[in-house]
Design brief:
Elements: H1 28-38, H2 51-61, H3 66-79, H4 83-87, H5 91-98, H6 105-120, H7 129-133, H8 140-151, H9 160-169, H10 181-189, H11 196-212, H12 230-233, H13 253-265, H14 273-277, H15 284-296, E1 300-302, E2 308-310, H16 319-324
Antiparallel strand pairs: 1-2
Helix pairs in contact: 1-11, 2-3, 2-8, 9-11, 13-15
Length: 330
């Protein structure tokens, strides 16, 4: 691509289709046959799913497990079947519906994205990666995933699972190492079958293999459908690089933010400061820091009376409420 996206990000460089010397190909026929028999029945993979519904699923799945996403996504596609339906809801409604999926800024960005799609794209999610990248909250992975899984585009889609499968099957490494967008995209680009529909299915199959068989901690090589794997042929050498530190949750600012958000989601009226103070008595400084960050991120607003509400809940001074002239109907 040559033009920069509308949001000012640098233009994405198209990966070079060149397999590194000595790298092994992945048997597409074996992988696709396995996928046809063993793929999970995930709701966003079913027939009749719209590009908007695929986009919602991809945003939800970015940092949240499938089992937690599926029931929420099922509710959302009924409540907000098209972008304009979400755009006319308040940010607070979307945040409440997001519930405990975590990282709620994703919900705000998706609400903003819905408004852009309704206003500028006639309620239709774009097909091409470059236009998708111009949408609020849509990054390189999400843009490619929507283009591929909603429209069947032949574009490499690379997540953690795909990087792991390629590292093992193609390069003979136990772990993929630090992400490198251009290198990772090029690695997958050269593996894709030529026909568009087959390439899209291949991308889904790579992800499925990494999620269910070629897992990070306990790869089940006996169940792997690939007839040849560079890592197995090398004797499954251990990873010799630094290990990723496990992300803890207990006691972090993220946990405190979640507790504050839970109080606001469950309240029908603005919340007093002392109510928020009670959610985290262990470290008042940490609690204050968490609340301040929620205000800065636009997830929480403070009313003229000094009370606290979710963004766009009709009581605070949100941009959305001023622009739309709406209040929460509850």
């Amino acid at each position: 691509m040559t033009a920069a996206p509308a949001d000012g990000r640098p233009a994405e460089r198209r990966p070079t289709e060149r397999r590194p010397e000595g790298a092994r190909a992945i048997d597409a026929r074996a992988l696709l046959a396995w996928y046809e028999r063993h793929r999970r029945d995930l709701p966003w993979r079913r027939d009749g799913i719209s590009a908007w519904q695929v986009l919602m699923s991809e945003v939800m799945l970015q940092q949240t497990p499938v089992a937690r996403v599926a029931p929420i996504w099922e509710e959302w596609i009924v409540r907000w079947p098209v972008p304009s339906a979400m755009a006319t809801s308040s940010p607070a409604d979307v945040l409440r519906a997001w519930g405990k999926l975590g990282y709620p800024r994703r919900a705000l960005r998706l609400h903003e994205c819905a408004g852009v799609l309704a206003r500028d794209h006639d309620d239709v999610v774009p097909e091409d990666v470059e236009t998708l990248l111009s949408l609020p909250g849509v990054g390189a992975y999400t843009a490619r995933a929507v283009a591929c899984f909603a429209y069947g585009a032949r574009v490499p889609v690379v997540d953690t699972n795909v990087r792991r499968v390629v590292a093992r099957a193609v390069h003979g490494s136990a772990e993929p190492g630090p992400p490198s967008t251009n290198r990772d995209l090029a690695d997958v680009e050269v593996l894709l079958p030529r026909p568009r529909p087959r390439a899209a299915t291949y991308s889904a199959a790579l992800m499925e293999l990494g999620a269910t068989v070629c897992t990070a901690r306990t790869p089940d090589c006996a169940r792997c459908p690939l007839p040849r794997c560079a890592w197995v042929e090398a004797g499954r050498p251990a990873h010799d690089g630094p290990r990723r530190a496990a992300q803890k949750f207990a006691g972090t600012d993220r946990q405190v933010r979640g507790k504050i958000m839970a109080v606001l989601r469950e309240s029908d009226v603005p919340v007093r400061r002392d109510t928020i103070d009670r959610v985290w008595l262990t470290d008042p400084g940490q609690r204050d820091r968490a609340l301040d960050s929620l205000l800065v991120d636009g997830l929480v607003e403070q009313t003229a009376a000094g009370l606290f509400v979710l963004a766009g809940d009709g009581h605070g001074a949100s941009t959305w409420a001023r622009t739309n002239g709406s209040t929460n109907s509850r």
